[in-house]
Amino acid sequence: MRRAAARDPHVPRRRGPDERPRPRRRRSRLGRQAVVYQVYPRSFADSDGDGLGDLPGITSRVPHLAALGVDAVWLSPFYPSALADGGYDVDDHRDVDPRIGTLAQFDDLVAALHAHGIRVVVDIVPNHSSDRHRWFREALAAGPGSPERARYVFRRGLGADGERPPSDWRAVFGGPAWEPVGDGDWYLHLFAPEQPDWNWDHPEVREDFLTTLRFWSDRGVDGFRIDVAHALTKDLSEPLPTQAELDAGTLVDGRHPYEDRDAVHEVYRAWRAVFEEYDPPRTAVAEAWVPAHRRARYASPEGLGQAFNFDLLMDDPDAGQFRRTVEENLALARESGTSSTWVLSNHDVVRHATRYALPAGTDLQAWLLRGGTDPAPDVERGLRLARAATALVLALPGSTYLYQGEELGLPEVADLDAADLQDPTWVRSQGTEKGRDGCRVPLPWSASGPALGFGDGSPHLPQPAWFADYAVERQEGEATSTLALYRRAIALRARLQSPETLEWADDVPAGVVQFRRPGGWTSVTNLGTSPVPLPAGRVVLSSGPQTEDQLALLTELPGETTAWLVTPST
Fold this sequence. Notes:
Number of helices: 17
Shape: globular
């Protein structure tokens, strides 16, 4: 029996089957111009000292999230998992990993966040399950041609006994994308072997995920982040293309055998119908790695409603690149009838404070393999540019997604020993790619003590000693700390927020990105190294190390700095 959402006044109510829709209430800021904070649960806070972050640990740190001022928290997977891929190998999509907590503790976390007006977004992983999922174990036991195997992508291998894979496709994490099961059948796994792909042509798979969406919505979840949203539906008609043909990138839009197929939007239309059962409707954001012109369909009001824009994440801190990316993505948002999204860091990439500390064009995987020393990062410049870029994106119309620890200015941990690595990329690539563990090292809450306040036990990924310099405890009360900048910028953004438009300033010095938002506030980012004159207005925010008193005296904007200005009437 489902838990009634009405138990919590912050939880939107689901309509009964015979109830007519009420007039639509105003959507929350989560839908369009939210600040969403990503929590990677296993690395946020550990309440029981086992070295792994957990739900009670997150609940204990809700005051930090409330003080930061975010509108929503996105929880990366907390489901039962063998951690073959950091929790994205899901055993049960409607439960909590016992090492992380219980469903009752999940309810406590939702209630604590809602009590502070913070909405809750959870990760949905629909492309694959884990190989420990009940249905996959049934598929292995049932044998070739069985109804149980039809829920997954099984194919007979090539050769007289099926001894060769159905194709030469490569998995994202390296190695073959097909895994033999010993009876002539092979199953598809676009990621790790422990992550078998679902067959989204199967009605039971589709219905089961609708059940999952309702399960979490009825527990108070306000929205969903859809993992690998572009890869659900597949066409494995013979002959299968070769890996070389896939790599050539010459397939017509929508005709790739497993990426960005048009049929995937049938799935999301059904999901949208579920979201609309709730008042106000649930929200969703797609992780869709597709060409920009294909992104609008994922973000459409009839689909998921929003899609991640990762373009800034891949840009160098260059004024021309930043402006082009912003212009293109605002145009795409208008086309889809939704708001844009802005991301600088997440659980899959090198943290932006480190990317900006390296020369443009640095091969990040090669740099990680060298332990992060060649070239040597300019840590101070990286943090300066990271603060400037964050202030710029927080001024943009649309939603901003922050990754845990960036409010502390955390750099990447690039020198993790091979023995400590957990990312399947390391093994599957045969040591040619180090993977993503360096951005998943547990957070430093204290400048001393066990695990720097993360928990009483040894953290599942080792923290470097220099993490203490970035601890929350050390930055609290420091007016010019990165934490103070994030808190001030988010609070000002909420006060200054205006319609989702901007007006570019074109007559600006080289290296400057400047725009004006409705309501009389202006953002100026100087990505050059020399100071530039500031436009008229009162400076209310600087990404530089200025105190509030010093802001009033600013007439020039230093290099690698962003400032926000308001007119006297604002």
